Amino acid sequence: MKIVDGVYIIPEVAANTYVIEDLDGLTLIDAGLPRSQGRILRFTSSLGRPARDVRRILLTHADWDHVGSLAALHKATGAHTYASRIEAEALAAGRSSRPTKLPSSTSIIRRLMRRFMSPRPFKIDEILADEEVVPVLGGLQVVDTAGHCPGHISFFSPSAGILFCGDSMVTDEQGIHGSRPIFTWDPVMAQNAVQKQASLGARIVASGHGPVVMDAAGKFPH
After folding, report:
1. How high does pLDDT run on average in the chain?
2. Shortest CA distance to 63 belongs to which of 104, 35, 99, 37?
3. Strand, helix or coil for residue 25
4. Regarding beta strands 25-29 and 54-58, do their DSSP bridges make them parallel or antiparallel, or are they unpaired?
5. Would you list the domain boundaries of the chain?
6. CA 24 to CA 15: how far, in whole Å?
7. Which are the contacts of 114, defined by CB distance < 8 A and separation ≥ 6?
8. Which helix (H) or strand (E) holds 85?
9. Can you state the angle between helices 37-46 and 70-77, rounded to 10 degrees?
10. What is the mean pLDDT of each run of 10 residues along the chain (222 residues)?
11. How do 54-58 and 80-84 pair as beta strands?
12. What angle do CA 151, 43, 140 make, to 5 degrees?
């Protein structure tokens, strides 16, 4: 589904995976759940782009639902992969970048999540840091938005006015909200990340979960 010219959200992939189309190829933001690669590559094919045209995969963070198909997509496309240092280190070790916040009564669920929801080790090609610019969509700025997890980053295109915020914020029909508390590593940092992103002047917010918010000005949480 097109958001604006050259920017798409891939339907029926959880968490939300985005495609940016530039002259030099395609960039994916996040990689969805395991076994999402077929749906993702069918969508890019519908744009008239073969798998080899996927040149970059940018990761907001290393949670299972955002990196589940990373290895398969990398194998199919040869794309260059990017993440923050903390999340890249977690991926290299095949673990989450922070502990889950489940009560002790759910120890069985915790063990199952650790077994089935931990990504296989994967080595990221390039580390991204706050204020770096990726040469995509007129210059995609890296924004340090730690809080949801220690190494969370977002991506903002000033020229297009689009903010790809991963799970640092979530969206629904009522608007934009902060990171869900049960999944938030540091609530104070998470709130600071919301305020930081609100100050960017984004016109469109594309989150990791929920609908894309158009006309986003004034819809950020306080």
Report:
1. 92
2. 99
3. strand
4. parallel
5. 2-102+121-207
6. 26
7. none
8. helix 85-93
9. 40
10. 97 96 96 96 97 98 96 98 97 89 52 55 98 97 98 98 98 94 95 98 98 95 86
11. parallel
12. 40
Output the six-digit token pair for 14: 């959880």
With beta carbons less than 8 A apart as the criterion, state whether 44 and 53 touch: yes
Vertex 97 angle, CA 194 and 200, to 5°? 20
- Give the contacts of 9 (CB within 8 A, at least 6 positions apart): 1, 3, 16, 17, 18, 19, 206, 212
Beta-carbon contacts of residue 116 (< 8 Å; ≥ 6 apart) = none
Q: Any idea what the Cα angle at residue 185 is, between residues 132 and 16, rounded to 5°?
A: 60
Instruction: Tell me if the domain spanning 2-102+121-207 has CATH number 3.60.15.10.
Output: yes
132, 200, 21, 16 alpha-carbon torsion, rounded to 10°:
100
Backbone angles phi, psi at 160, to 5 degrees: -95, -15
pTM, 2 dp: 0.93
Residues 142, 140: Cα–Cα separation, whole Å: 7
Q: Side chain identity at 146, as an amino acid letter?
A: A
Q: Determine which helix (DSSP H) or strand (DSSP E) holds 193, and give its type and residue range.
A: helix 187-198
Which among 77, 117, 73 has a CA at the least distance from the CA of 94? Answer: 117
